[in-house]
Amino acid sequence: MKFKKVQTLKQIATLLNVNYIGDESFHISGINEIHVVERGDIVFVDHPKYYDKALKSAATTILINKKVDCPKGKALLISDDPFRDFNKLTKYFNPFIASKESISESAVIGEGTIIQPNVFIGNHVKIGKNCIIHPNVTIYDHSVIGDHVTIHANTVLGADAFYYKNRPTGFDKLLSGGRVVIENNVDIGASCTIDKGVTGDTTIKEGTKIDNQVHVGHDTVIGKKCLIASQTGIAGCVIIEDEVTIWGQVGTNSGITIGKGAVILGQTGVTKSVAGGKSYFGTPVAESREKLKELAEIKRFLKERKKES
């Protein structure tokens, strides 16, 4: 998430009421999670296990809960609770603004696009040309939709990420300040839910077709010309490369990659990253030929045992 105006280290430290290490005029242009950080961003870290990863990331300012040696060319913000202070930054630079109408005056809707009754379109949404948005679709603030996109009834674009920190007082939510981006010629079925990114974008690329009742988690990127069948659940921060086919009732772990042209057969649990150009089946996931051979062997073994008994 980029700020509308570049901030200084001192300005951010004053906003959060924290100490800092570095030049007070050091420039900060945004905040992001570790997997999408760029030069100029703040990233937060609150566990020693991930200190090194954050300090060596592309982020140039690290919001951290311990004084450590500051890498050259970077700055530190020392906080007793980086999770809380990261939320403060999201709330300050991207505050929630309640809508006053079903279709926001700030929304931009392209020529030839049809908006059916009872659609909600939030603030600063952009919808391209010749789209069809069917009844009861909800499109949250800042979503971007390309040309020739069809979205069927009851689908929701831009709900918050499912991201919580477990505290003694209960689960503390990480606020979502990202977007959903749908490229050209995408079809999305009925009753789908596509969560926005925490700080970046959840993206569905050109030509992809999604069936009914599919869930796409925060910050996931789905490539071009993919086919995703009904009741699939895709976790957050997943990368699905181009021309992947996913059949019904598939589930994935977060943070994995499904390679270009892979085929995931129905009811598979994709527990790890898989290479492209192959077919996969089962839980834990394996190449479909191997998995089917395993099942055949188990069936043969049980049959032999039954004979022996």
Q: How does this model look, in words?
A:
This protein has 309 residues and is α/β, with parallel strands linked by helices. It folds into two domains: 2-93, Udp-n-acetylmuramoylalanyl-d-glutamate--2,6- Diaminopimelate Ligase, Chain: A, domain 1, CATH 3.40.1390.10; 108-289, 3 Solenoid (UDP N-Acetylglucosamine Acyltransferase, domain 1), CATH 2.160.10. Helix content is 15%, strand content 31%. The chain is built from four helices and 34 strands. It has a ten-stranded mixed sheet, with helices on one face. An eight-stranded parallel sheet has the order 7-10-13-18-21-24-27-30, with no helix packed on it. Strands 1-3-4-5-6-2 form a six-stranded mixed sheet. A hairpin with a 4-residue loop joins strand 33 (279-281) and strand 34 (286-287). The longest helix is centred in the C-terminal third of the chain and has 21 residues, at 288-308. It is globular. The termini are far apart. The mean pLDDT is 96.
Brief overview:
The protein contains four helices and 34 strands.
Task: Name the beta content range.
Answer: 25-35%
The number of distinct structural domains comes to 2
Low-confidence stretches: none
Distance between the termini: 66 Å
* The CATH superfamily title of the largest domain: Hexapeptide repeat proteins
Query: Helices and strands: which structural class?
Result: alpha/beta
Named CATH topology of the largest domain? UDP N-Acetylglucosamine Acyltransferase, domain 1
Largest sheet features: 10 strands, mixed
What is the gyration radius calculated from CA atoms? Answer: 23 Å
Strand order of the largest sheet: 8-11-14-19-22-25-28-31-33-34
How many runs of DSSP E, i.e. beta strands? 34
